Amino acid sequence: MIKNIVFDMGNVIIEFNPIQYLSEIIDDPAVVNQVYQEMFCNKEWEELDRGAISEAEALASIGARIPQYIGYVKHVMTTWFHKLKPIEGMYELVQDLKHRGYRLYLLSNASPRIYEYMDNVPALKFFDGYLISCDIQVNKPDKEIYESLMRKYHLIAEECLFIDDLSCNIEGAKSVGWQGYVFKGATDLKRYFIEQQILE
């Protein structure tokens, strides 16, 4: 029986759209794509989430590859979290789950920057706890991060359901005995909850 519902943050609770952030300050789509690839699809972003490097180290590493665009990289790295928007329908869905007695947790791959915007995410006021990858130096889908959340809050694996937008992270959750569902939007998720008799 599911008692604990664990959510990812980016593209589940809030929108995370790096291409959009970059397009707001760069006119050339080719440059947008190049900066996106070097900044968000390379090792540094993952290492920031793991708490393995500082922002200064990430900037130096990325800048060594695209020195001509380092100004854009620095701007986005230090301001992107001010542009976050809630995923439509998720506040109401999370509120409903909380009112029905489910315990709610956040499990996110994120750098320490997350603590600068968590208070501005309305849905998080319904959550009972959280675990952030940078604090334990482990990213999803490593099974250790799921086990760490269970240890922290004394959860039982069979009572946990994980919602994430990436199938690899869902597979990581299933490897420790959780159920999981790939997020495709609040309407789809509500339908799933009804099918599973989590909601009526």
Task: Note down, in words, how this protein is organized.
This protein has 200 residues and is of the alpha/beta class. The protein has 10 helices and 5 strands, in the order βααααααββααβαβα. The chain has helices spanning 18-23, 29-40, 43-49, 55-65, 70-79, 90-99, 133-136, 143-153, 167-174, 186-195; strands at residues 4-7, 103-108, 129-132, 160-164, 179-182. The protein has a 5-stranded parallel beta sheet, with helices on both faces. Helix 3 (43-49) packs antiparallel against helix 4 (55-65). The radius of gyration is 18 Å and the shape is globular. The model has no long low-confidence stretch (mean pLDDT 96).
Quick overview of this protein structure:
The chain has helices at residues 18-23, 29-40, 43-49, 55-65, 70-79, 90-99, 133-136, 143-153, 167-174, 186-195; strands at residues 4-7, 103-108, 129-132, 160-164, 179-182. The chain has 200 residues and is of the alpha/beta class.
Protein topology:
Blueprint lengths: L3 E4 L10 H6 L5 H12 L2 H7 L5 H11 L4 H10 L10 H10 L3 E6 L20 E4 H4 L6 H11 L6 E5 L2 H8 L4 E4 L3 H10 L5
Parallel strand pairs: 1-2, 1-4, 2-3, 4-5
Roughly what percent helix? 40-55%
Strand order of the main beta sheet, please? Answer: 3-2-1-4-5
Strand percentage lies at: 5-15%
Q: Name the helix and strand elements from N-terminus to C-terminus, one letter apiece.
A: EHHHHHHEEHHEHEH
Unreliable residue runs: none
Question: What's the pLDDT, averaged over the residues?
Answer: 96
- How many DSSP-defined strands? 5
Structural class: alpha/beta
Distance between the termini: 15 Å
Radius of gyration: 18 Å
Q: What is the 3D shape?
A: globular
Largest sheet: 5 strands, parallel
Summed up, the helix count is: 10
